[in-house]
TrEMBL record:
Keyword Signal part of the UniProt annotation: yes
Domain of life per record: Eukaryota
Gene: Lcn15
Transmembrane residue ranges: none
Domain Lipocalin/cytosolic fatty-acid binding: 34-173
Cleavable signal peptide: 1-20
UniProt keyword Signal present: yes
GO molecular function, one term: small molecule binding
Pfam annotation, one family: Lipocalin
Protein name: LCN15 protein
Keyword annotations of the record: Signal
UniProt record similarity statement: Belongs to the calycin superfamily. Lipocalin family.
Amino acid sequence: MTVALPRLALSLLCLHQAEAEVPMQLDFDAEKFAGMWHVTATASNCSMFLKMKDGMKSSITTISSTPEGDPAMKFIWPLLDKCQKFELLFQQSGQAGHYMGTSAQEKRDLLVMETDYSHYAILHEAHHSQTDPSTALQLLTWEQNVSPQILQKFMELIPTMGLTKDMLAILPKSGEC
């Protein structure tokens, strides 16, 4: 027990420091960010994502605000024989561009790392789950095509967030859903 407590404290300290180092978009404007985006690339250490990433296709997410002003993300993912729809609701954290979501099983932190509001956005999501904690980076684009420069910028961020290139999926275009 005495050995476990220092390890736990060290783990929590490392997790806290890793989160603190995630850069965020300065002067984030949620109104400009709202709209329909294509998820064109994702890197994650989530075990479910890693199992499915080679069969995934580009999806669409619509970002809007609830009547209370909190962000809502509606996803449509093309799967083998159907379109899977789901919605994530977040709450503002008090810092523009940083949002939190909570469910019975996990807590999520979503940060807008960088966006130009008209071509691309890079999001960082941390899932604080007791069974499968994970980190993800997502590259969102207004168009399904992503420029090589933006994709390179995204790929350079992957190792800085503790992820590796083998955790990356550049999602092929999809006309489905």
